Amino acid sequence: MESRLRIAVQKSGRLSEKSLQIIRDCGIRFGSDSRLLKEQADNFPIEFLYLRDDDIPRYVYDGVADIGIVGRNEYDEQGLELEVLRDLGFSKCRLSIAVPEGFAYEGLNSLEGKRIATSYPGILARKLAQAHVNARIYEISGSVEITPSIGVADAICDLVSTGATLVSNGLRETEAIYWSTAVMIGHPGLFAEKRTILNRLLLRIDAVMRADDYKYIMFNLPKEHLDEAAAIIGGMKSPTVTPLLDEAWCAVQTVVREERFWDVLEQLKALGAQGILVTAIEKMAD
Ligand code: PRT
Ligand code: ZN
Questions:
Q1: Tell me, what's the pLDDT at 237?
Q2: Integer Cα distance of 36 and 19 in angstroms
């Protein structure tokens, strides 16, 4: 029987949609019926297991799944030794200390002897140990942000993205102790056939993620400014330059890193570039 790579993704939650989208962007077709526990792709040897995010590292560790997509926070909290194959960059959040109004927070030392509620006792304990702070950690699986108001804890350590939840519970974010994004984790001992499928998948994922980092731009430029434009664009290779009917002008095509894009655009305009067209790149492989 043909071997299939088993990937564990969150069944329903913050990671689900983007985890499946990145696989879809790799040209892999499947139904993504969230009522199912297991499903196969139509055109790639991969099989999905839809699980609670907390269970994903353990399933990969035990070899039930070969790879998985999970928040780095969950992976680090569980402390199972796996391969982190890729940082996928989405579901960005931080693990922060937050305190009620009136708590004079001056750093981790202010937590000495205090009760801290969290769903991430492992990461918090490591951080406190590094800072030589002794505190009492209360492990709670959810609704951590209400614990100070009901007298269960003096402070909390919880995931934050916008911070709105903390504010609406009368808490102040005082210090981030850990940063997380979604990661693809893998079983370190995959046998050759599965490793080959994994490498095919990673090649596609890299192409999708690289494409997100770049824009494709085309513009017309007075030829005399070509060297200056090339220096501004920098980047991977020299740009493609095509002559135009008007011999004083040329057409230029190239890719530019997303984070430099507005800078580059302004500088090209200053050189006299015209008819600037910008498009997103769908895939980009070496
Ligand atoms: O059911 P299952 O166990 O699978 O899901 P879950 O409820 O345990 O996890 P889920 O879907 O809530 O989160 C999955 C992962 O998303 C986490 O492990 C993080 O890696 C990541 N992530 C990103 C977040 C957030 N952002 C986030 N904001 N996880 C949780 N939150 C919480 C936060 O703690 C707060 O209570 O969302 C609330 C709103 O946040 P604010 O700051 O935007 O108000
Ligand atoms: Zn969970």
A1: 67
A2: 16
Nearest-angstrom CA–CA distance, 275 and 286:
28
Q: In what order do the strands lie in the sheet with 83-87?
A: 38-40, 46-51, 5-10, 67-71, 182-186, 83-87
Q: Tell me which residue has tokens 């990145």.
A: 22
Per residue in 68-127, pLDDT tens? 999 999 999 999 999 999 999 999 999 999 999 999 999 999 999 999 999 999 999 999
Taking a 5 Å cut-off on Cβ, the residues next to ion ligand 2 are 53-54
Q: Say if residues 68 and 184 touch (Cβ distance below 8 Å).
A: yes
Hey, what domains does the chain have and what are their CATH numbers? 5-89+182-211 (3.40.190.10), 93-180 (3.40.190.10), 214-280 (3.30.70.120)
Choice from 55, 145, 159, 181 to test ligand 1 binding pocket (greatest atom count within 8 A of CB): 159
Q: What's the pTM? A: 0.89
- Identify the DSSP state of 199: H
* Nearest Cα to Cα of residue 225 among 262, 263, 268, 278: 268
How would you classify the pairing of strands 5-10 and 67-71? parallel
Burial 89-126 (b: 16+ CB within 10 A, else e): ebbebbbbbbbeeebebeebebbeebbbbbbbbebbeb
- In angstroms, what is the span from residue 154 Cα to ligand 1's centroid? 22
Six-digit token string for 269: 């305009």
